[in-house]
TrEMBL record:
Belongs to the ATPase epsilon chain family. NCBIfam families: ATP_synt_epsi (TIGR01216), PRK13442.1 (NF009977). This is ATP synthase F1 subcomplex epsilon subunit. Pfam families: ATP-synt_DE_N. It comes from Agrococcus jejuensis. It is a peripheral membrane protein. GO terms for cellular component: plasma membrane; proton-transporting ATP synthase complex. One of its GO terms (molecular function) is proton-transporting ATP synthase activity, rotational mechanism. InterPro entries: ATP_synth_F1_dsu/esu, ATP_synth_F1_dsu/esu_N, ATPsynth_dsu/esu_N. Residues 4-82 form the ATP synthase F1 complex delta/epsilon subunit N-terminal domain. Transmembrane segments: none annotated.
Length: 85
């Protein structure tokens, strides 16, 4: 089963789509997310969010000042600053 991923900044949607994996840096350390992950809400640390889409090449997004939410194979990342790396 795929993860439904949405990454948005204060200005616009940066990326959305289906992915097999997402990893990000939080204030408590690095987190990796696969299908079936337990629900979590975390504060993002400044760094890269890495996404492995179901189709296509991996992407990286530079993100800062935001949070990450995981629930029922849906990953939402909302950051004040986010742009494709």
């Amino acid at each position: 089963m795929a993860l439904a991923v949405s990454i948005v900044s204060a200005e616009a949607e940066v990326w959305s789509g289906d992915a097999s994996q997402v990893s990000a840096r939080t204030v408590e350390g690095e987190i990796g997310i696969l299908s079936g992950h337990e629900p979590v809400l975390a504060v993002l640390a400044e760094g890269q969010v890495r996404v492995t889409p179901i189709d296509g090449a991996p992407i990286a997004v530079d993100a800062a000042d935001g949070f990450l939410s995981v629930d029922h194979d849906r990953v939402e990342i909302v950051a004040r600053h986010a742009q494709l790396a």
